[in-house]
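Model the whole thing, not chain by chain.
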Amino acid sequence: MTTIRDVADAAGVSIATVSRALHGLPRVSEATRQRVLAVAADLRYVASPSAASLASGQTMAIGVVAPFVNRWFFAAVVHSAEERLRPAGYDLLLYSLGTNAVERQRAFSGTLLHKRVDAVLVLGLQPTAEEVATLSAAGGPVGVVGFAVPGWCSVRIDEEGAARCAVRHLIDLGHRRIAFIGGEPEDPLLSALPADRLVGYRGELAAAGIPADRALETVGGFTVPGAMAAMERLLRLPDPPTAVFAASDEMAMGAIHVARHAGLRVPGDLSVVGIDDHEMSEMFDLTTVAQPVEAQGVLAAEMLLAALAEPDRPRPSVTVPTRLVVRGTTGRAG
Amino acid sequence: MTTIRDVADAAGVSIATVSRALHGLPRVSEATRQRVLAVAADLRYVASPSAASLASGQTMAIGVVAPFVNRWFFAAVVHSAEERLRPAGYDLLLYSLGTNAVERQRAFSGTLLHKRVDAVLVLGLQPTAEEVATLSAAGGPVGVVGFAVPGWCSVRIDEEGAARCAVRHLIDLGHRRIAFIGGEPEDPLLSALPADRLVGYRGELAAAGIPADRALETVGGFTVPGAMAAMERLLRLPDPPTAVFAASDEMAMGAIHVARHAGLRVPGDLSVVGIDDHEMSEMFDLTTVAQPVEAQGVLAAEMLLAALAEPDRPRPSVTVPTRLVVRGTTGRAG
DNA sequence: CTGAAAGCGCTTACAG
DNA sequence: CTGAAAGCGCTTACAG
């Protein structure tokens, strides 16, 4: 364990000078700096993060709080955020909460993150007003992906608009019996996002003068098996849909699989559109509303870095664009 | 920022006693402990991790080093490891290296992890002898998922055996023109694992007396597009295969897609088997060699915890079983 | 059972 | 430009 003391002794300077030299601070002569740098490299000196944090008050770590990491969207966002954060010198502490309410509580109460990170990045979790208050009180900037939270940085897509776009596409193709496969309406972790997509679905139908039919609104839980079960229920309907809008591509794939298994042609007998542009969607030839995933991770990371650098600047809320990608799973009705 | 000082003052004891009480150490009367606990809870006291680390020498954090997190296998392992580590009080620092040699170098040299984590979990990266030496010198226990490294904990599947099992299945079905879609042979990050699967493929063919044909050994890079390109090349062969063994399920899916697109029936004209039992494989009706992913993450986490608790105990190397899951993408030859 | 004190390894005003 | 010193908030022998 070589310490700053060892470097100072070897370089013949005080530890204060070593610290300044290593941090590139002014008030160190170029010659001294070079000598310190050389000695430090020679001794393979690496400052103790704990000691540095304790003394400086900065942890140089960012906490990422998400319900899952083993899900396409979250994994991609974490990956891209990390790629942006690491070069800036920040470590990434991962808090994958699952659907555990207790863990969520601990994370948002600050118990988990307190004095441990300089900033927090929340993914796909809509904080309650109380959670916003407690996490804000913790001090550091907070960034959110998926929702807009006043006072916090955020990046997201227009959920309702994306849903409307998908449904509009189906309507334009002549469909009128359009089903929806969404998330769990009461899922405590992921409620608002699917809700917005449902709102978009209903809104676009209404705009087209198509009467709502609650039987066509199903729950897929954002999983393949959930969507498969939902699709099976839809197919058993007395008047089954001619088109399905799934709130995620993975659910769309599950729906397509069930439909084909039941002997339906896609898009001949059933059109299916998703949201995401999942990495497997092109292979599936799936029509979808693409959202920029990497970009959201990078943007969120950059907003956090900016907030860390200038605590007083206003916290931006960015909406990134989505776009309809028409592929082979949607076609004209009838 | 309430500190241990505040708690001590409020409870009318010294900070040493607060520390002992909070850690459940002996030499504190039950009455005092209760009082301290109550005061601490009241003040919402959370110890500063930096200060605790500096004083104790333990960071209570574990570094996870992986080439990607946004890939099914890695995401699942990270998630399950985290679920096991958090209840034990450990934080998870994520180092997603990508294919960046510089980052890899930094991670394994210890520059990144030095004094920052108590243990390291390496996923899907086979360390060089030099990397093993430097990371071992860092002190803490190291766990590896995917490879066996002498002196380190490890958990993995029998890569060669899994490959043999897949190929054996195809041979048993009467296939003799069996192609292989693997990883990049020269990929610095992921070389050994695909290599072992290739060895298994060749070994099983040889055992069955089937002559090797290098034209049937293709590179898919462990991605869907890579496998699609590989499959296209295979189909253009003068004497194309009747069966394909893909070294991952995602590659198998890509291969199937290309084959069907080319008008081939799967499994009628082409049988395809993968490795993984990816979450989408059941939907794809894909025959595969299943590996327990969650179990590997949990096991690795537990081995690390055990090593942390008893540094002198020998570091186990565990091989978890795989099993052939016969579904609908493989059938009799001809 | 409890406290005073040293020490963990840094950063950062403050002098010079 | 450089150093001595205080201080960050804990843990942990060492006394008592």
